[in-house]
Amino acid sequence: MNNLRDWLEFLDRTKRLICLEGNIALEYDVLRYIEHFEGKQACFFSRPGGHEVPIAGGLLGQRQWVAELLELPVDQILPAFQRALKAPLEWNVVEQDSAAVHEVTHDKDIDLKRILPIITCHERDGGPYITSGLVHGLNLETGKQNLSINRLQVQGPDRLSILMLPRDLFAYYQAAEKLDKELPVTVTIGHDPVVELASQAIAPRDVCELTIAGALKQRPIDVVKSYTNDVHIPADAEIAIEGFIIPHKRVLEGPFGEFPKYYTGQDLLPYIRITCITHRRNPIYRVNNPSGIENVIIGGIPRESSILERMQLNFPNVLDVRLTAGGLGRFHLIVKIIKKQYGEAKNVIACAFGCHYDIKLVTVVDEDIDINDSEQIEWAIATRFQASRDLVIIQHGLGSKLDPSGDKRGLNDKMGLDATKYLGDDERFYVSRIPPSLGNVYDRLAKDSQSLASYLRS
């Protein structure tokens, strides 16, 4: 698998892609179809809104699909990400004119909506948004790059507003603004899905996520320098939007239906001045449902690996973690441990909150619980948790600014549940079971229901 097209062909061969024809409206309808089939089938729109550029969406609908993408068993996904975080692989630079993403160039009379089929997602959104753009930012102080997914609202033919949360790209922009300089960025759309996943890893500052993608693929990512700035981007991307984030200037952005399934309000945000758009000769425009299953998977799995790596440094007996779908792949974390000491689960809870500020609920369970099974997790809470002893509450901690239940400063209350068995009380928590037996339960299946019919007639 080398690019978006390879993945689409794979999904098609395995009967997990549907093609949609006709003039399906860019406003609402494209996302309506993607949301309907999400988790079951990916969608390919041949002429959305009458546009010549097709759209693809819903491409990572299940955790199992990620395992197939990486050619790994499902239980090896997080270890693979952990290895990649420890040993990033530097990229390989190719010539500008040889890159597929540079086959067609638009550097005059740029008009975003004429070139690209940009969709409007929700009924109250402030306008069309690019929802799957990977923003490659250049640190002017170190020359290093960062990769992130940011929401981008169309503000004009050659202008995109950008929401930057308090992470690496925002730090780059703050530093550039202090110097009264524009921040070079290039937005790419349509990639090998491994690059999308890597973009969400929690990596140290100035460790570019493209190098993590290379480590995941066990070969360097081919990159090419943008034409109008010094940012390097994946050479096999479908589309690239080059430009600069302007210092000290803001435009009105929003509302937008974000990943928690609620709208953010309007705010004044920085914007990108677009200097050039390049793309493949026949590009494919990638759409991500901002509040859908795919967004949970893309955001959740890389975060899980980073959180697990950090937690195991302090607690080697942490076996696995999972950011739940109900918690949107951000807010609710399940931690599986081999409990060894009294009070240890509460320390694990505190450690988890320190791994990422988005986390607001941590549930710690024993090694006998399948953390992919919500019923088993609920059973552990029901039978091993007492609020007066096992509940941890932290008031007014730093949380996600996109959590509608938090205050305007981004402060949230956080809760931890110790749903582990009590140490030294094995008999009390011995789980009832049917003793194992030789043979298969299907060995005694009758060929038909004749025995029932005979008994009822007797």
Q: So what's the overall shape?
A: globular
The poorly predicted ranges are none
Fourth-tier CATH superfamily name of the domain at 77-287: Electron Transport, Fmn-binding Protein, Chain A
CATH topology name of the domain at 77-287, in short, is Pnp Oxidase, Chain A
Q: What's the alpha carbon Rg, rounded to whole Å?
A: 25 Å
For the sheet with most strands, the description reads: 9 strands, antiparallel
Number of helices: 13
- Top-tier CATH class of the domain at 77-287: Mainly Beta
The CATH architecture of the domain at 77-287 is Roll
Helix residue percentage:
25-40%
Family: Belongs to the UbiD family.
InterPro entries: UbiD, UbiD-like_C, UbiD_Rift_dom
GO molecular function: 4-hydroxy-3-polyprenylbenzoate decarboxylase activity
Organism: Caballeronia glathei
Structure in a nutshell:
With 458 residues, the chain is of the alpha+beta class. The protein has helices spanning 4-13, 29-37, 63-70, 77-86, 112-115, 168-178, 193-198, 209-217, 293-314, 344-355, 374-384, 387-390, 450-457, and strands spanning 17-20, 42-45, 55-57, 92-93, 104-106, 129-130, 134-138, 145-149, 152-156, 159-162, 183-189, 222-225, 232-234, 239-245, 251-253, 256-257, 263-264, 267-269, 271-279, 285-287, 318-323, 332-337, 361-365, 391-398, 411-418.
